[in-house]
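Worked example

This section walks through a single chain of length 471. The input is the sequence exactly as stored; nothing has been trimmed or padded.
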Amino acid sequence: MRWRRHDEQGDQTADDAAAVPQTSDAPGPGSDDAGAMDPWADHDVPPGAAAGGAGGHAARVEVELDLGAVEPDELSRAVRRAVARALAEDLGDRGDVTSIATVPAGMTGTAELVARAGGVVAGGDVVRAVFEQVDVRVTVEMAVSDGARVEGGDVLGTISGPLRSILTGERTALNFLCHLSGIATRTRAFVDAVDGTGCAIRDTRKTTPGLRLLEKAAVRAGGGHNHRIGLYDAILVKDNHVAAAGGIGPAVENALARPGVHVQVEVSRLDQLEEALQLGATDILLDNFTPEEVRQAVQRVDGRAALEASGTISLDDVARYAAAGVGRVAVGGITHSAPNLDIALDVRTEALEAPAPLASVWSDDEIGKDTWLQPPAASGTSDEARPAPGADARDATADAPTDALGGGAPGDADGGASADADAQLPGDDELEGPSGAPAFVDAATGDPDAPSESGLFAWRERQLGEQPGRD
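Given that input, the structure is written out below as tokens.
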């Protein structure tokens, strides 16, 4: 895993890190246009804004608004991992038994993602990843991009393909889309509340375990900024660190002695503010200050440090903090308490088509039998026995089992990965898919991070198909 860290931006000494603040980007206005918001793009600096500083045009010290950053391919990898876990949790060892029981095998159709309320969209790539893992024959066309504002009744995207597969991925896709769009919507509400003040809205580490990168991308889609991604990419000296170090003096001095790492110091009282400044702190977090106390802090600092307010700041009073002159406001609630945006998936009944002659990846031949409890056959199926891409799958399946429930995965024609593929997989410490096999590996190389033409997930291998999701 390769993270872009701030200590890689230049060769700074400890004295340089303390004395020379890094430049910052200021919050730009949120975009209402579909496709206009790149959640990882830098925001433009509004004319005259004192980005990240002590507020107003008097700010002289600036810091980066986004203390942590991650490359797009790392976000993509985090998406795939999150989706794999969610599907494994939802499908278990038997798959979507309701759709198998009620939807004719081979039926195709189209469904629409429809907003039931207005908000800001985030998570389109996650929706695509869900259906790619369920069945590669499903196509997803998003009509809006992350960061776009939508109204109730707007169609956000269209999903077409095998109907069983669409319904299988429905809830997982909506869980992600509604949650991430809720974060983007809540973030945009805070951003709008401080519009025109030069104050930036930042998130915190109060995120859902395992979903941090997805949620921080949603914050960016909503027009907010990321504080730090984790504990590794910036120093934040808090009250417990001060207590453990024996006082704010040794805590701050030790932190500032770390070269090339951004340091922010938290204070909870006005009397601690001057002490932090004398110790050389150039980025100070005002924790649980009132708006009036923030105003006093801004006056005392007078541009000697960048200031940020935090601590139970609500949508009702965030504008008062911005008006007090603080350059940034950290809001944990935009991730840990954001309500879902109401989005539904509606099947267009007029677009349904009769079952095709090609066998479905979801077979109901073995429903009610106990064969799904048995492990895959030891003999497996070699790559040579699989039909070439484009070959008629019916020829290959004439004398073969078609049970999609046998040990595992969405659409496993033989109930799981072949023994040959399983033998090449890493140990039990990897994420397990529905069949019990590690889910996030390259079956050919054993690399848990590298993609592979045969699919990333062992439990999606098709004994009779040339790639995951095909018969």
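What to look for: The CA atoms of residues 209 and 215 lie 10 Å apart.
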